Amino acid sequence: MIIEVIVQHSKEIVEAAYGKADRVELVSHMQHGGLTPDAQTLKDALLMSFVPVHVMVRPHDDSFIYTEADQEIMLQTIALIDTYKGKNIVIGALKEDLRIDTDFLERVIESYPYMNITFHRAFDRARDVFEAYDTLCHYPQVKWILTSGGHADCMGGKDNLKRLVQKQKAQAGPIIMPGSGLNLENINALHQHIQADAYHFGKAVRLQQSFDYGFDQSTLKQLKTILK
């Protein structure tokens, strides 16, 4: 079982590791749903070795349909991640018809075939999440998919998440990692229903349920007990 938590800087990586999180997603600007961290934060985080760091590569929150200029910025960010020996990126892009943007995905993979990719919640904006899953199965570099099952949160998307996990196991495809709206109150029931191999937590594992505060170590400990 993998528990991923969101971090915004290197100090939080230390806290997450202390709480025995299995991996972290490094982002900035959580008020915009999580964007690319700045270069110094990225460098500081990747030079640490407490826990695997997965770096968000998302230049803005306008949409998941990216211009050529946006894509160049994203490729430059991945180049910087590569410079600091990072091997894990979090990306996602859609075409105008809301299918997976395989052209951009293939550009990334051709340039950095050794990067482990988590396809982020652009997946939830796809026109059909099951079609999108089948598309991503063609790319072995896509290891994980962060998703709420095409809904606003995991409670709303629980049935789709269950079906996606079943597809994952039947097709040996990318690991489905439910995220959005998970907390101590609902994770046990959701896990029993979905049976995923990984879960993603945000403010639910923070003191006062806010990204302005550090991690609630008691909550992290309880999650590790529930998700054995």
Number of helical runs?
8
Low-confidence stretches: none
Number of DSSP strand runs: 8
Helix content: 25-40%
Q: Please name the CATH topology.
A: TIM Barrel
| Order of strands in the sheet with most strands | 7-6-5-4-3-2-1-8
How does the overall form come out from the CA principal axes? globular
Percent strand: 15-25%
Outline the biggest β-sheet.
8 strands, parallel
Q: List the secondary-structure elements in sequence, H or E.
A: EHEHEHEHEHEHEHEH
Question: What do these coordinates show?
Answer:
By secondary structure, this protein is α/β, with parallel strands linked by helices. The chain has a single domain (2-226), classed as Alpha-Beta Barrel (TIM Barrel). 36% of the residues lie in helices and 16% in strands. It is built from eight helices and eight strands, in the order βαβαβαβαβαβαβαβα. It has helices at residues 10-18, 39-46, 68-83, 102-111, 129-136, 158-171, 187-194, 217-226; strands spanning 2-7, 23-26, 53-56, 88-91, 116-119, 142-147, 175-178, 198-201. An eight-stranded parallel sheet has the order 7-6-5-4-3-2-1-8. The longest helix is centred in the N-terminal third of the chain and has 16 residues, at 68-83. The chain is globular, with a radius of gyration of 16 Å. The N and C termini lie close together (6 Å). The model has no long low-confidence stretch (mean pLDDT 97).
